[in-house]
């Protein structure tokens, strides 16, 4: 199946949700190419950016699972061109 490369931005606004986000990312680690996390305790948030490579279905499943976690906002941008 064709793969896409993309960026996923995650903003965690509730500290209690961080463990669930990390568990989800661990479960789906196979499509994560790179990860950068920036804690901002003075603002009460954490920000994670991911570089991912996977099928549209795999990436959509990841963003869907993350988006269902309370206090978590997720946005993604994917390449239009599919890699073989």
General description of the model:
This protein is an alpha+beta fold and 84 residues long. It has a single domain, classed as Alpha-Beta Plaits (2-Layer Sandwich), CATH 3.30.70.1150. It is 26% helix and 42% strand. A 4-stranded antiparallel β-sheet has the order 2-3-1-4, with helices on one face. The longest helix is centred in the C-terminal third of the chain and has 12 residues, at 56-67. The termini are close together. This is Iron-only hydrogenase system regulator.
Strand order of the largest sheet: 2-3-1-4
Low-confidence segments, given as residue ranges, are: none
Name the shape in a single word: elongated
Task: Give the DSSP E fraction (strand runs of 2 or more residues).
Answer: 35-45%
What does the secondary structure layout of this molecule look like, with pairings?
Elements: E1 4-12, H1 18-27, E2 32-40, E3 45-54, H2 56-67, E4 72-78
Name its key features:
single chain, ACT-like_dom_sf, FeFe-hyd_TM1266, Alpha-Beta Plaits, Iron-only hydrogenase system regulator
Quick summary of this structure?
By secondary structure, this protein is of the alpha+beta class. It contains two helices and four strands; from the N terminus they run E-H-E-E-H-E. It has helices spanning 18-27, 56-67, and strands at residues 4-12, 32-40, 45-54, 72-78.
